[in-house]
Amino acid sequence: MAILKLFSLCISLFLLIRAPVRCDSIHFPSSSSSSSSSSSSSSFSSDVQLLLGKIRASLEGDTQNLLLSSWNYSVPLCQWRGLKWVFTTGTPLVCTAASSPQWSNLTLFKDPSLHVLSLQLPSANLTGSLPKELGEFTMLQSLYLSINSLTGTIPLELGYSSSLSDIDLSSNLLTGVLPPSIWNLCDKLVSVRLHGNSLSGSLPEPALPNSTCRNLEALDLGNNQISGTFPEFVSRFPGLKELDLGKNLLSGQIPQSLGQLELEKLNLSNNNFSGILPVFSNSKFGVEAFEGNSPGLCGEPLKSCAVPSHLSSGAIAGLVIGLMTGTVVLASLLIGYMQNKKKKSSSESEDENDEGEDEENGGSVGAGGEGKLILFEGGENLTLDDVLNATGQVMEKTSYGTIYKAKLADGGTIALRLLREGSCKDRNSCLSVIKQLGKIRHENLIPLRAFYQGKRGEKLLIYDYLSIRTLHDFLHESRAGKPVLNWARRHKIALGIARGLAHLHTGLEVPITHGNIRSKNVLVDDHSFAVRLTEFGLDKLMIPSVADEIVSLAKSDGYKAPELQRMKKCNSRTDVYAFGILLLEILIGKKPGKSGRNGEFVDLPSIVKVAVLEETTMDVFDVEVLKGIRSPMEDGIVQALKLAMGCCAPVASVRPSIDEVVKQLEENRPRNRSALYSPTETRSENGTPF
Ligand SMILES: *[C@@H]1O[C@H](CO)[C@@H](O)[C@H](O)[C@H]1NC(C)=O
Ligand SMILES: *[C@@H]1O[C@H](CO)[C@@H](O)[C@H](O)[C@H]1NC(C)=O
Ligand SMILES: *[C@@H]1O[C@H](CO)[C@@H](O)[C@H](O)[C@H]1NC(C)=O
Ligand SMILES: *[C@@H]1O[C@H](CO)[C@@H](O)[C@H](O)[C@H]1NC(C)=O
Ligand SMILES: *[C@@H]1O[C@H](CO)[C@@H](O)[C@H](O)[C@H]1NC(C)=O
Ligand SMILES: *[C@@H]1O[C@H](CO)[C@@H](O)[C@H](O)[C@H]1NC(C)=O
Asked: Has keyword Signal (predicted)?
């Protein structure tokens, strides 16, 4: 309630502030520009009056300007430089050919239905300033005045413009603050380029909370003197592709939320930013995007952030708090809650006793004031000190927490997964899950080497670090030198995933469901195309409400089985459904679920159904899949599509078991495998399938 009231108060304040200013500027044109034209003003295009009056005078400054002198009643309108026109109806005035009737029409300027559509005078020797009347053009969409010598400020009135979407005032001599009214244009703005001026002060916030400026693609404020903190609100602009804040005086932290944007260009260099860089999930930027900031700025691609020596409970809590903005209260509440609980249940006094608990599984226990370390096969040489003194850098944040690449003192590298808050609290049930996960060894599953639990319940899972990429990267990222994913390779990847999953479902004493099958959780070696699944079984380490929350997140990714809408527990059938979606993703090459760009939901099974009905089935496959294939039937491609559709059956009981999936994939292999593989693969590691 309180928030709602505050919000409506904000709106009314906003309207109050905005309305009178707007009225001030509206009465202006008729009174002032009539003085500059001697003809009767009523039958003129009001935009022409504006141009010949205040606008020309202001842009020109003290010196006569060659280009602006074309703006003259004795010159046909079509020959006025730097202008494009549109009629009130929306039809543009066509001025292109010198032969067109408009080209020499000397009375066109009198047409009251003509409006300025764009004003483009880059490199035009303009030496004046920006007139506030620029905000009065009703149909002006683009304003390009870059590379001139314009001085003064950006007028507040520019923000009252009703159609402006592209602004380029780069490389001028503009000073002062960016007026807050710029965000009045939020919904229409596509690009704002103010690079290379002398703008100062801090960036204004949009007046409306949660403004998303959904069409804004480019914001270039580089090379100015803008101060203050990072404008966090830009990370709510979903369409932003280019952000340049380089060479300013900005400081403080760069918000993690910036990492969620699908940025293509980014420049935050030469400021005074500090703290931990966000993890950019959809793009990779080099050092040049971040260099020249405070020495405290760290994280990929800059130096790694030193995890404070001794990853003490406090430090971990600090990390969690630092990384998960917005969950500060939850984290500290949880810590407080757990401490209380321990006090109350002191009769159990399990903390002291279970340090000596017998680990039947070849594991050993490191004890001490810091917490508890359980070692599994392959992790025997790790010590508590090794883990606690490792220096780490954030690799990725997932729904289960944060993954660090950590360097051990002896030079080895491990992957540390710090579980988010909300991991299970009951020590016994937790440990039995951990021990079960620690036993799992299969060539298509990432092995858990050790587990650490701190005094306050924080949990670190320690895995091998593999410097290989995810299937998601392979399928959806463009990068130079990326190996071609032909059908033979995709088949090998799909079979590897199915085998890993089959081991979880049927190869263990106590079966495990993966719970989070998706292309981001499949690591692929780019020489051998051997795969390893990650993130399996972690739902069992979460308290039920958090596990439910994570399951529901899977919905937006498109991997969630329909029955999970009602019952939240994952099982082997929901895993098979997610595998089916993943197999479709491998075959079609499209990302399932909500697409970042316009939030559309990509439903892969529906795409296939439509294609089958329209008899265009062959068109759904990724072009790389069909490369070099003579008969999609004989090579098992069509069978794989059918299999994937079977896995995605809406009714859980008719989906095949994962063992059946493995069998079918093995029976329907690509015929000409060797020819399609690169020579390096003949040297592929021992034991990988194929
Ligand atoms: C328009 O052009 C005429 C003739 O070329 C010139 O005398 C006049 O000063 C110009 N007017 C303006 C406002 O530049
Ligand atoms: C010139 O343009 C005006 C306004 O659009 C129009 O009324 C007039 O007929 C045109 N004159 C010629 C000669 O085309
Ligand atoms: C700009 O001004 C300079 C000197 O004032 C002149 O040499 C040049 O021709 C002008 N350029 C344009 C496009 O008017
Ligand atoms: C703004 O966003 C926050 C967090 O996403 C949300 O809690 C709040 O209700 C939103 N406010 C409005 C007015 O939409
Ligand atoms: C980033 O901005 C700085 C300063 O404006 C510039 O020198 C540098 O070339 C830019 N880097 C990239 C990658 O655009
Ligand atoms: C940069 O920021 C740090 C705080 O992070 C501050 O102590 C320092 O004075 C700033 N340096 C400059 C040049 O503004």
From this structure: yes
Quick check: CB of 675 below 6 Å from ligand 3?
A: no
Structural domains in the chain, CATH included, are 174-327 (3.80.10.10), 328-334+350-464 (3.30.200.20), 469-676 (1.10.510.10)
Specify the pairing of strand 459-464 against strand 448-454: antiparallel
CA distance 240 to 219: 8
Q: By the 8 A CB rule, do 340 and 351 touch?
A: no
Q: In ligand 6, which atom is closest to the CA atom of 249?
A: 14
Distance, CA 290 to ligand 5 centroid (Å)?
9
Q: How confident is the model over 173-194, as pLDDT tens digits?
A: 999 999 999 999 999 999 999 9
pLDDT, tens digit, for every residue of 485-541? 889 999 999 999 999 999 999 999 888 999 889 999 999 988 888 999 998 988 888
> For position 670, what pLDDT does the model report?
83
- Between 311 and 53, where is the model more confident? 53
Closest CA to 543 of 413, 682, 668, 423: 423
Q: How do strand 191-193 and strand 371-375 relate by DSSP bridges?
A: unpaired
- Ligand 5 centre and the CA of 266: distance in Å? 9
Beta bridge partner(s), residue 86: 92, 115
Determine if the peptide bond prior to 679 is cis (ω within 30°): no
* CA 84 distance to own-chain centroid: 37
Residue 406 bridge partners (DSSP) = 392, 414
Instruction: State the CB neighbour count (10 A cutoff) for residue 22.
Output: 15
What is the identity of the amino acid at 689? P
Q: Which residue has the tokens 């098992």?
A: 636
Residue 183 structure tokens: 């965000």
DSSP characters over 391-437: EEEEEEEETTEEEEEEE-TTS-EEEEEEEPTTB---HHHHHHHHHHH
Of all protein residues, the one whose alpha carbon is nearest to atom 5 of ligand 4 is: 210
Q: How many whole angstroms from 546 Cα to the centroid of ligand 4? A: 22
Which residues are within 8 A (CB) of 153 and not within 5 positions of it... i.e. 6 or more apart? Answer: 129, 130, 174, 175, 176, 177, 179
CA distances from 5 to 2, 10, 17, 408 (A): 5, 9, 18, 53
Mutate to test the pocket of ligand 2, among 44, 85, 111, 114 (most ligand atoms within 8 A of CB): 111
Which residues contact residue 578 at a Cβ distance below 8 angstroms, ignoring those fewer than 6 apart? 514, 516, 517, 518, 554, 559, 560, 561
- Please give the structure tokens belonging to residue 328: 């500060």
